Amino acid sequence: MNALAPGLYIVATPIGNLGDLGTRAADILARADLLAVEDSRVTAGLLRHIGIKRPMTPYHDHNADAVRPGLVARLATAAVALVSDAGTPLISDPGYKLVRDARAAGHAVVTIPGPCAAVAALTLAGLPTDRFLFLGFLPPKAQARAAAIAEVAGVRATLVLYESGPRLAACLAALADGLGDRDAAVTREITKRFEEAVTGTLSTLAARYADAPPKGEIVIVVAPPGEAAPAAADEVEAALAEALTRLPAAKAAGEVARRFGADRKALYARALALKAR
Ligand code: SAM
User: Fold this and answer.
1) Residue 135 located in a structural domain
2) What pLDDT, on the 0 to 100 scale, is given for residue 228?
3) To pair with 89 at 20 to 30 A between CA atoms, which of 35, 207, 224, 237?
4) Which domain holds residue 252?
C-alpha cells in the first residue's frame, strides 16, 4: 500500500448507513498514519466495518485547543485523517481551526467529501434548494433562540437546522412565531432504517410533535419567505396594528415585513396611514 503524502485529510463518514462510506474515504482511512477522531469507539466501529485498524487520537470540542498545535506539528511528516462521529467534519463539528492552522503552517489540506446531514435533508424536504442557509443548532434557551430566529427572518433562502427530539416541538413553535407559518420538513434518521421526512406548516409540525417527541437524529428544513400560502391581508393588518402599539411606524413595518415576508415599504406606508386615523 503506497504511503500517503503528509498533510491533513478531511474525511466525511456515513451519517447512519455504513454502506455510504466512499471508496476514496475508506482508502484514505486505511493509509493514514493517524486518525484524529471525535470518539474512538464510534470510529472503531467504522474501521471494523472496513476491516482495518489505525492509530487514533482524540480531537473534540473539549481538547481541540490543547492538542491542535501538536497535531499541526505532526502534519509535516504524517498523513493525519480528521473524522467526526458522523458526516462531514467541520459541519457543526470541530475542525475549522485545524484546517486554518494547518494551512498557515504550510501543510497540505485535502478533502474527501461525502455524507452531510444538512445536504441530505435538503434532498428529502422538497423545498427550494437554489439558496439555503445552514444554521446548525439554534441556542436551546427560548430568548436566545427567538433572537437567532429574528436575525434570519428576512433572509430569502431555505433554512436548514439541526435539532434534537426533545426540543423539536418548541423549536418548531419558535420558528412559526418568528418566521410566520412557513412550509417545512422534519427529516429524521436519514439513511437509517426509520428514515422519514414529514412535511407541513411549522405550526402543524409543532402540534404534531408537541406530545410525542420523536427519537433519533433530526434536521429541520424551512421554506424561504413567500413559499407558504401568503398570510391573509387582515392577518398582516392586525399584526401591524398590534406592532404599532409597541413600536414606531418604521420598526413596526420592519418587524411585520420580516415575520410575513411582506414588502416593508408598503407596510410602512400602511403603518403611517393607520397612525393618522
Ligand atoms: N457533521 C455532521 C454532518 O455532516 O451532518 C453533523 C454533526 S452534528 C454534531 C449532529 C447532528 O446532525 C444531529 O444532532 C442531527 O441534527 C444531524 N444528523 C446527523 N446524522 C443524522 C441523520 N442520520 N439523520 C438526521 N439528522 C442527522
Assistant:
1) yes
2) 46
3) 224
4) 233-276
